[in-house]
Amino acid sequence: MSQQFDVIVIGGGPGGYIAAIRAAQLGFKVACIDEWKNAKGGAAPGGTCTNVGCIPSKALLQSSEHYEQAAHHFADHGITVDGLKMDVAKMIARKDAVVKQNNDGILYLFKKNKVSFFHGRGSFVKADGGLYEIAVAGDKPETLQGKHVVLATGSNARQLPGAEFDEKQILSNEGALAVTETPAKLGVIGSGVIGLEMGSVWRRLGAEVTVLEAMPTFLAAVDEQVAKEAQKIFVKQGIKLQLGVKIGEIKKAKKGVTVNYTDAKGEAQKLEVDKLIVSIGRVPNTNGLNAEAVGLKLDERGAIVVDDDCKTNLPNVWAVGDVVRGPMLAHKAEEEGVAVAERIAGQHGHVDFNLVPWVIYTSPEIAWVGKTEQALKAEGRAYKAGSFPFLANGRARALGDTTGFVKFLADAATDEILGVHIIGPFASELIAEACVAMAFKASAEDIARICHAHPSLSESTKEAALAVDKRTLNF
Question: Which residues of the chain have pLDDT under 50?
Fold first, then answer.
């Protein structure tokens, strides 16, 4: 006989496992189904983020940053390092250990919150009498029944036609995180978050990195002033950026990959690399969900169609995260997961898409929330701008990293903060203050009047807020 649940969550990534835990906290009997496996075939919940995305990429970025500091910057601190070596295999092993800690942590949270976990692929069988029958295909096949179903099946890397992933020479994010030795030459197609982060890892470890981008502008979604600064810095670091290219034939050989492309001038070019990372976006994952069995509506991209509350076209079926509209970000999925669980409980779950922060974990880090300056110009909205360079910040000088700046955009009439953009050290942490301030409709003046610790990088946030009114104190 099928086990019955109040809520069945398909997918154990950030949106799914958080939805399951919050639903359990609200008193529901909850099941979560996830098929990720570790190297030994065991359960590895956490989705793309934990297994081949956010977490492992940050582990490799940290390791490679340590190596770069030791190789090029420790001497500035009076530290001499002789015989510096990089053990890539050990770096990858550490990354794998960090991933496993996160997998195990999620399994512990399921147990703590009394969420029943099923290891396998979940799919619809039928809808019957107000319940949905869900099959779990895995080592221990199961059939479950649930009143509510939350779909959190995530996304997959988009393949480039003619350059399908083999994860040995042509790599998605998954293969890029498992390279066992530093390639002499690395090509990256796409200058998005994944491409830049992975390019940064292997550039620091000695690879010659070339990034090919189809768009004529670099980081088009980022504030233009920040994007220009980032481009200048990445080129100075040694990453070769080719913008406005058109990719042609890609050929694999025994020892490398050749990319034929047309550059921005219309001239034919050829790039020969040892490995090629293809990072041209991601597509919603509804493979094997058997959506047609229950009439679940998908759009032309294969995404699950939902309304503003994450409701699908089916009663009591919800969807969150990468598999629906909106930014493909782990923290956006988490917020939707919590909101859906609360809506199922009759509460008023809420997600403000205008306050979702974005981060690129390169060096320097890039983080932003709210409107860009070009977006405000396009809207015709009157605004004021203020910025402050880390070069004038005492803590940044002590860190030895004075790259970049903090930039505030505020309404010209009301002074309400409309956007904050940061490029520089620990931007991923500093952006949180902006998110909180904007959630409470704060003005730039509010931030400018709040006491910030000295010496701290956060003083640059205060000074940028002061700069909106043209009254910085330290620049």
Answer: none
